[in-house]
Design brief:
Blueprint lengths: L28 E9 L3 H11 L2 H9 L8 E6 L1 H7 L14 E3 L2 E3 L6 E7 L2 H15 L3 E10 L19 H8 L12 E10 L1 H5 L3 H8 L19 H4 L3 E2 L2 E2 L3 E2 L2 E5 L4 E10 L2 H12 L14 E3 L3 E5 L2 H5 L55
Antiparallel strand pairs: 1-5, 1-6, 2-5, 3-4, 7-12, 7-13, 7-14, 8-9, 10-12, 11-12
């Protein structure tokens, strides 16, 4: 049975690169696991050995509930890439760039590996995370672990619908999968993650009308405010990115999370894109402002406590990694050829509920409208 780690199959006589399941169908549960790799060649070797085994590990857990839509995406930070694979490296991979503007701070925090695990049921996510850590625990140090859940009708804990203008199908693949612009890594993607904590007492003290002007949408109906009344500092205005007259989209799968007894309520933002520059521009607009000073007022009530940028290589790349293999061997002639720009890698099992980034907003952001339950 085909693993959900894999996003594309060979549909013709031509061999094609297989993408990871970046645009998997949105689910009710997720685990976000960020780790750093311990120093020492033996620990790097453990991670490289694990890369080729991830697909089979996923299949073993997935088979226990084939309707549970279990999937896993593995990404690598800039430092980890150099440590594990060296040259060549993805053209736009770098450490997350922090932003400091007044009291607003987009922090940059440690992170070598990202596991984005999704399923209809948390027990499937939990089991896969457990099996992953059993394999690589000795080689890694945990930096952050968040268990996310869908909240009623896809609302954030601040009460607005979150992430509902994501592209779907081929549009989603075009938005997030690298093509000819970095042909050696075609089928890969970039992903930025941030963990936001909300001041719900302060937020809930605002009137509904004040909240709507901050977000740029009606709270109950999720309908976007008319431009004549929507402030230029509205979240969905600042996070809409237009280049050459066309909106540049990203793919989000944000999740609420929290610990009630500790008074922790938040949103885990995760945004996949073909280039990290798109999300970075959104963050600049939010934290610095467009123009400077015209910042996202949502940040008066939400603060970022983590920030990471990862590169998600293709599943083909992962399955060709071996413990003693040089990075140059990963793109050798025995590997399936990379699809050309006329037939960019596509993801298997495209779902009508695949995410989209229509309003360019961030997830604490993307508070626009399509229903995304499976």
């Amino acid at each position: 049975m085909a693993s959900n780690l894999i996003g594309a199959q060979e549909h013709s006589n031509e061999m094609r690169t297989v993408a990871q399941m970046v645009a998997a169908q949105l689910t009710r549960a997720a685990i976000f696991l960020v780790l750093t790799i311990k120093q020492g060649p033996e620990h790097a070797a453990t991670i490289k050995s694990f890369c080729g085994d991830l697909a089979s590990l996923l299949r073993a857990v997935e088979f226990r509930d084939i309707e549970g839509q279990l999937s896993c995406v593995l990404g690598f930070g800039s430092t980890a890439w150099d440590k594990l694979f060296g040259a060549p490296r993805p053209a736009e991979l770098h450490t997350f760039r922090e932003i400091l503007a007044g009291a607003r701070h987009a922090v940059s925090t440690p992170g070598d590996l990202l596991f984005h695990i999704r399923a209809k049921r948390m027990d499937l996510c939990f089991e896969l995370a457990t099996q992953i850590m059993a394999r690589i625990e000795a080689a890694t140090t945990p930096q952050d672990e968040v268990h996310g859940f869908r909240y009623f009708d896809d609302r954030d804990l601040i009460g607005f619908v979150d992430g509902t203008e994501n592209p779907r199908g081929e549009e989603a693949s075009a938005a997030v999968l690298i093509g000819e612009e970095d042909a050696a890594f075609a089928g890969g993607s970039y992903v930025i993650v941030q963990k936001y904590l909300h001041d719900l007492d302060g937020w809930n003290a605002l009137s509904t009308e004040e909240q709507e002007k901050i977000i740029g949408r009606k709270k109950l109906s999720d309908i976007e405010l008319d431009d004549s009344i929507k402030p230029s500092s509205a979240h969905n205005a600042l996070t809409t990115i237009v280049e050459d007259g066309k909106e540049v989209k990203i793919l989000r799968d944000n999740m609420p999370f929290g610990t009630v007894a500790q008074g922790e309520f938040g949103t885990y933002f995760i945004g996949y894109s073909r280039s990290p520059r798109t999300v970075e521009t959104m963050l600049d607009n939010m934290f610095v402002g467009r123009p400077p000073g015209n910042y996202d007022r949502l940040l008066d009530f939400s603060r970022a406590v983590t920030g990471n940028l990862f590169f998600v290589p293709s599943a083909t790349f992962l399955e060709n990694v071996t413990e003693d293999q040089d990075s140059g061997d990963l793109n050798n002639e025995d590997q399936p050829a990379i699809a050309d720009s006329s037939s960019a890698p596509v993801e298997a099992e495209p779902s009508p509920s695949n995410p989209s980034a229509g309003d360019g907003s961030l997830g604490i952001g993307s508070l626009k409208g399509e229903r995304r339950h499976e």
